[in-house]
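Quick one: co-fold with iron/sulfur cluster.
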Amino acid sequence: MSAPTYDLGKLHGGLRLPGNKENSTAAAIQQVPVPAHLILPITQHVGDAAEPIVGIGERVLKGQLIAEPYGSLGAPVHASSSGKIVAIEPWPVSRRHGDTAPCIVIECDGEDRAVEVAEILPAFETLPADFLLSRILQGGIVGLGGAVFPTAQKLMQATTCKLEYLILNGVECEPYISCDDMLMREYAEKVVGGARILLHALEVGSCYIVVESDKPEAIRRLGEVLGDLNDDRFVLKQVPTIYPSGGEDQLVQLVTNLEVPTGGLPTDVGCVVQNVGTAAAINDWIIDNKPLLSRITTVTGDGVAQPMNVEARIGTTVADIVNFVGGYTDRAEQLIIGGPMTGKSVTTDRVPLVKATNCILVLSEAPAGGTERPCIRCGDCAAVCPVQLLPQQLFWYACADDEAKMRSYGLLDCIECGCCDLVCPSHIPLTADFRTARARMQEQADEKARAERARQRFEARNERLRQEQQIRDEELAKQKESARKAGPDAIAEILMRRQDPPDEDR
Ligand code: SF4
Ligand code: SF4
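Sure, here it is.
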C-alpha cells in the first residue's frame, strides 16, 4: 500500500458545511439490546418488495429468511432476532415516497436464538466470482450509503463492464452523520476484508479507499490495517471535506478525474463504487456467515439526551433507539431520518430502523427557512450544483410539469443534494420540487416496466399453451393414424382415452 495521498479535488460546486459530528463521535459504538418488537418492512431496497414466506403465529430464529427476493432488483429480508410473527401489516416507515409500507412484525422472545449455520464456506479466494455474487444476494446486502440498491445486482452489472477500479466510499460528507466514520475507526479490518472479497469477485486489480480529511482517526486505523496487509492493490486516499463529495459520480471524478457521462454509471468509466458499510456487511456474511441483520446508525442533534453511534437490529423502532440513548430533551421539536440535507422529516418515532437508516436526527427547531419569493435569476444555485445543472431553469419546467424539458435539462442527473436550496436567497424549495418530479417520472417508468413484464408473461404463457396443444395434436394424429391401420375398434378406444388439458391451462 502507498502512503495516504491528499487530493485537492476537482469537484464542481458543493458547499463547506459545519460538520456537527463531535458529539456523536465522542464515545464508542453502543449496542442496542433486543427490543420487544421488531418491525421489518419488505421494501427496504430499491426494486420490487420481497415476498413474505412466514405466517402469523410462526416462530422464527435470528438470521432466518422471512421474505424472499422478488423481481430483478429484489433483496431478501431476514429475522433480526428470534420470536413469533404477530402481524404482517402496513406500518409507518420513513420512505422518500409514501408514509407506510407492509411490514413483518416479530414479537421477540429475548433469547436471540440464531439459525444454525448450514455450511462453512472455504476461503473466498478459492470461490468462483458468480458463486460469491449469488451468495451476496442471499445475505440481503444492499448499498448502506443510502441508495439501498441490491449489492449483488450492482456487482453483476459491473462484471459485464471493463473495470479498472473499486472505490470504497468512506466520504461521509453530510453534516451530523458519523456512522461510517465510527465504523472505519472500530471495524477497519472488516472494511478492508470486504474490499478484498469485492476485488476477487469483480476481478479488479486496484482499490481506492476514500476518506475525507476531517476523519483522521478513521484514516489512521485504515492505514494500520492496510500497512499490516501490505497489499499494493490498495490506495488510501484523502479528499477535502466538501458536501456532497460522497455522491458516487462526484467521488469517481475526485479520485480518478474521470467524468461519469450524463445518464450513465461509474462502470461506464471503469469504476465500481461501494460504501464502506456495505463492504463490512459483505465481510460479515462471506467470512462470518452473518446476513445483514443490524447496522450502525448515528443518533444525534440537540433533541436527544446523549448523541452517539449505536448498532441496532434492523426493525428496531426509532422510539426504542432514542430511549436507549437517554430519550428526548425538552427542546426536541423535529425528527429527521437521515441527515439535514437529504433526510426525511417524520411525525412519529414508531418508524423502524431499516437498512438505509444512517442517522436519526432530532433537532430543537426546523432548519432555518424563509418566506418563498420569486426567483431573482442570481445564478447562485447553478454555481453550487455539483452536477452542473441549472436549478432555476429546472424549477421553471417542474412548475410547468414539462417532462420533456426537465429531461433535457438533466433532472434525472440531480442527486437531490439540497445545495441549491441552501443558497437560494428567494428560499425556493428547489430540491423538494425536483424530488417530486423525479418520483413522478420514476413511477411512470416503473409502471411501464411492470406492464412490459406482464405482457411478456402473458405471451410466454400463450406460447407454452400453444406448444403443448401442438404436441397433443401431433400425438393424437399419430395414434389415429396407427389406429386407422388397426381398424374401427381401436379408433373408438383412442377417442375414449383422450384427455382434455387441465383447467388451469385453458
Ligand atoms: S439538488 Fe439537484 S439541482 Fe440542486 S444542487 Fe443538488 S444536484 Fe443540483
Ligand atoms: S438561487 Fe434562487 S433566486 Fe437565485 S437563480 Fe437560483 S432559484 Fe433563482
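If it helps, DSSP finds 14 helices and 18 strands in the chain.
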